[in-house]
Each structure stands twice: as structure tokens, then as C-alpha cells.
Request: fold
Amino acid sequence: MATMIVETIKQAIEHSGKTRAEIGRETGVDVAVLWKLVHGGTASVQTLDTLCGYFGLELRPKRRKGKSRGNDR
Reply:
């Protein structure tokens, strides 16, 4: 799960059209941490949450195929 979150943030950074320096200034996240994320590293939950908010990303439960959600009667 964490790998998927980091990969999604990495893609958001790379496709944002902004430099890591700009993202760092706008989020307060150190540029070294952004570099680490883009190059396969990870970061604290707080930092990942900050970046998710900045890029408009959110976690949602994954739908399970063939599983009822309890709404059937």
C-alpha cells in the first residue's frame, strides 16, 4: 500500500509542471525529501499527507470484486 502511495505522489511531482524547488516552497517539504521520493525513497506519513493534499490526492477504499457491501436484501 505505501509503495502505491509513494508511486502516485512521484508521478504527481513529475507531471506537475513545477520544479521540486517550487513544490518545496509551496508545501514546506524539503527539496531533498522530494528528490528522495522521485528517486525511489519514502517519507514520513505527515509529509506524504501534505503532498497528497497539495496534489489533490486522497485515499479511498478499494472495491472488492464479488463482495457485497451489505446493501443487498
